[in-house]
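Quick illustration, no need to memorize.
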Amino acid sequence: MKEFVVYTALRVVLFLASLGVVIGVMALLFDGRFHLFWAVVLAFLISGVASYFILDRQREAFARRVESRAARASAAFEERKAREDED
């Protein structure tokens, strides 16, 4: 669960930082005005691409955790199924 929280928190921070940069750049380019909808869309795209490269290690840790939990659940299911077949 820790990996999920860390990865999600870092994604949120990256989005907010991207949003701040996008709003700042738009305000500079358009004489202090910006359109919030387009700023959010651009920040979402930028943070998504950036997280692919920047948060690779955290994403891999989260994926390993999910994979290990899925393997344990699958093994437990197979064990229960084998016991049921014996009866």
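The chain is about 90% helix and 0% strand.
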